Amino acid sequence: MPSFDTLPSADGLWTDLRDRDGQPFAIAVVDGQIAWTGAPDAVPAAHAAAPRHAGGGALVTPGLVDCHTHLVYGGQRANEFAMRLAGASYEEVARAGGGIVSSVRATRAASEDELFDSASARLRSLLAEGVCAIEIKSGYGLALEHERKQLRVARRLAAAHGVTVRTTFLGAHALPPEYAGRSQDYIDLVCREMLPALHAEGLVDAVDVFCERIAFSLAETEQVFRAAQALSIPVKLHAEQLSDMGGAALAARYGALSCDHIEHLSQDGIDAMAAADTVAVLLPGAYYTLRDTHLPPIAALRAAGVPMAVSTDHNPGTSPALSLLLMANMACTLFRLTVPEALDGITRHAARALGLQDTHGAIAVGRPAHFVLWDLKDAAELAYWFGQRPVRCVVRQGRIADGSV
Fold this sequence. Notes:
The protein has 405 residues and is of the alpha/beta class. Helix content is 37%, strand content 20%. The protein is built from 16 helices and 15 strands.
């Protein structure tokens, strides 16, 4: 794989493009930054003589943002998929020793290089589809050395692939076997030892908790949030996936970037998220894989003005998805999002869910050049097709990362 730094610069004038509304569009890139956007017949004199990149009438969108993933892990859990098909519930699989803890065993057994190689292969699939920023959570180590290993791999992936990676410490993902029956002791470890150490090493951009009956209580979640707040680290939450625990309202009180899953979100939670400007992250891949039937409250979120992001939730147990466009399709077909909502969900709202709203999710002057050219006639096709990859060219971090013009 060539070094990202050796890829060609995207500097120049990108012409013969169409925006989401089908209007002619052009982009000027200077030193890897977007210097101008507008109609092709209104190019300023400062950019008129710049090298030309002819888009051939391609649709252009901001680079995609995958704002919730568990990309770094060992092994896989296809056997649990078969168990659920045979009738076992998510909770029954977890109580039988499967679920998150089975990935913990495989992740602990893997070396950092092995985790890097397997995650790189998965990341390349997402990047080839136009992803320019991604969140990667820990949570399959559940011990300091192994959580560190996951987060170090996430940092390595960013450098090796030239992609924006936001790391999220999810030490409170599940109770490790050695702490069975001692959840408070483990939360103390997370708050007093693991989080401070990983933060000091520059490995943590945000903190997450799985707040659920099979994971951690509301009180335990708040302890983790307080520890993050003391270190000025933003929080987010796996909230209301299997039941209404009141986690979204709690997360909103701590100014959470996002609440994710939220199938059982209450009106109180919605109101709290709206007041805190917290993003709702919809994860249709997990909903589909678990054969859930309890839909997130989309109409109520829409009415309250809560921004809705869409993500793959890539993980080995409940969403082995490596296509953000497929998730956009599922968000429309399963959750009844409109096409504009789905496209905003994988661009600007997803960027907000990671605190990247000033650099990603939009094509705007002064931002780094992150955009995608698509061999499509209509923006609705991004959510319509599935099973194909209509990317013509990806510009990421100011370089032509995939395809050509």
